[in-house]
Structure formats: structure tokens, C-alpha cells
Amino acid sequence: MDGIEVPKYFLCPISLQIMKDPVTATTGITYDRESIEQWLLTCKNTSCPVTQQPLPPESDLTPNHTLRRLIQSWCTENASLGVDRIPTPKPSLDKSHFFKLIKQLQQPGSNIKALQELDFLAAKNERNRKFMVETGVPKALLSFIVNCFEQISVQGLAEALRVLVFIRIPLAEAKIFLQQFNDQIIKSLIWVLGCEFKPQVMVKSHAVLALKTMIQAASSGLLERLEPPFFEMITGVLKQTTTVSQQGMNAALHVLLIACPWGRNRLLMVESSAVSALIELELGSPEKRTTELILGILFHLCCCADGRAEFLSHKGGLAVVTKRIMKVSPTADDRAVFILSLISKFVATNSVLEEMVEVGTVTKLCMLLQVASTAPYLKEKAMGIIRSHADEWRKFPCIDKTFNKVY
Predict the structure, then answer these.
(1) How far apart are CA 355 and CA 352, in angstroms?
(2) Which stretches make up the U-box domain (predicted)?
(3) How large is the angle between the packed helices 157-167 and 200-217, nearest 10 degrees?
(4) Would you place residue 404 in the very low, low, confident or very high pLDDT band (cuts 50, 70, 90)?
(5) Global pTM?
(6) What are the residues whose beta carbons fall under 8 Å from the beta carbon of 251, sequence distance 6 or more?
(7) Which residues, other chains included, contact 52 with Cβ-Cβ below 8 Å and sequence gap of 6+?
């Protein structure tokens, strides 16, 4: 189409591309349907992009059939110049179609077909996903997943989970669903993590992402009732780096972090070998956000004696936490120093103090004190660790010269 002059009124004011499905807003301006619907769905305080007049998200969009025919005719006339003809758009779906699919989802003979169509429509555009939330598709999908759990059937689970992740359940609605389904949703999603699928990665990743949403919405009462199999399964996810996506891995870490404030949960995590799994995951040098989540969880687990014992029993624990200081982010520095502070305060045996020298912990703390951008509270915490064991560390012949400069 290079060199061809396209009539300006054929172009969408938003995308600046030839309109495939021109619709006219209440302000009298015509846009391509996909562009203006995306604008209305994603922008806050929406207004007409051209006139700046108020344009509510539920604003009527009238198909401009005359302009569409003109565009199609122009495209046909210029086909020899490389212009593709714009196909006649299919009628836009309304909410009634999604209500129909929900009914089909509840019928054994048609539920798989309904799931496949929901999967296709969710991936198509934001408008469909908005309609799904408004018509109750998330609740219907969660009910389907719970039924699969109760009947020990995996048929349709992949599609149901993929649609759930696509449409992103609002937090307020997730809280309502948890009240309606009790803890069956949590149990069902944990069950999914233990099932075998093809492809394995996406199904399990979607299950963890859905679980993260539900755990974020869970009440303190529900979080306090989480059972050992819950933590065993999530810990298992941390060990399955080849069967879960990076997004799924971070979701699993978020789930643990949300559950950490309760002492009972911390003990259950330790018993499920979460400390070792977290250290092994961190030794793989993950991305920044993953490291921040891992260190955040390790800090909580090191707040209990069993957690500290498990941390020190792993040969790479102190080394990897030390290595991350000043290498990742201020958030990672904060968590790492607080972990070291707990170790220093409660389990500073001679062997532990010697290991802190050998793996460079003392040197790193001294370096942190000399960096101008280090937060004052973090410098104070690092100095507190050094001050507590300065006399012991001076006895080691391998102590870094930086130590004597700082202290």
C-alpha cells in the first residue's frame, strides 16, 4: 500500500489504520470498533478521544454501515495495488450469549464445547472478558473445577483454568466465591497441581495463578486453617522449575508469602522442606522479583527456630543470601540483612560465625555500610550484626581489612 493515498475519513482516529468495523460514538465521531472499545475498557474517566466530551464505558456504539461499504468498495477498486479487502464484520456478541454458554457449561453433554468457545472468546478481546465477569462466568468456571475435583475428572480443566487466568477475577468477587464455596476452591486447585496433564507447564501455571488470586482474597480464618498437603504441594511446585512457568513460580511464591504471617503456617512450611526448596531455587539465579519473594519468605521462616535450623543445615543458605546483597535491589538488601540479623541474634555459634566470614557475609555488611545510598535503618541493622560479634570475628586470620576500617 506504499504510495497509495488513503482517504482520511477511512482511518480510525485512535489507531490511524483503515477501519475494519467503523462505529459512531454518541459524540458523532466514528472509530474502529476494536480501538474505541479497548479505549473505553482500559481508560479511567473516559472521554471521546477527539472531542474530549464524556463518553461512558457503556456508551452506545452505532455501526456505520455506509462508511464500511465505502471502505470495502475502495479496497476492491485498489486491490491491484496491494490493498486487501475489508471483510464484513460479524455481529458483535452481547451478554445473552455468555449467559447461554454458562447454561451449557452446567450440562455434561455440552460443557466441553462451551469451555472451548469461552476459551476462544476470552483470548479474542477485552470486551469479551469484561462481559464474562459481568455475566458470572468466573463463578461458573470455579464451580466446574470443584465438580472436577469431586468427580476426580480432569476433562476440560485446562480450558477452564486458562479462561480464569484470561479474565482475571476481581478481588471483591473472589472473596464472595470463597464464602460460597467454602474452602473447596482451595482444595480443588491444590488437587489440580497434583494431576498429570499435557501440556503440563501451562495447566499447572494457570492453576497456581488462580490459587494466588483466591489466597489474596482469603480471610484470616481460612488462611489459619490451611492444611499440611497445601504447603507440601506448593513446595513441590518450587521444585518443578521445568513444569511451571516463571509467572507460575512467582505466583506460588506469592501464595507462601501471603500465608507467612501465621506461626502455624511457617512451621508447616518448614516441615514441607520449603526452606531447602527456596534456597535451591535462589541458587539458580532467578529474576529480580523472584529473588525478592524468596528472600521475603526466608525472612519469615527464619523468625522461628525450626526455620533457622533448616536454613543453616543447607550448605548454600548463608552463601546465597550474602551474595544477593548489593546485587539485586534495595528490597532484596533489606530482606537479606534481616535474615542475617536473625541468624546472628539467635544461632551465632562459633561454626556459624566462621561460615559468615568464609562466605563473605562480614565483608558484604562492611561494604553495605560504606554505600551512601544504603537506607539509614539498614546501616544500623548491619552495624548491629557487626557490633555483636566484632570480638569473635577479629580472631579469624582471614578477616577482611574492610572490617577494621568500619569497626
Answers:
(1) 5
(2) 5-81
(3) 50
(4) low
(5) 0.81
(6) 205, 208, 209, 211, 212
(7) none
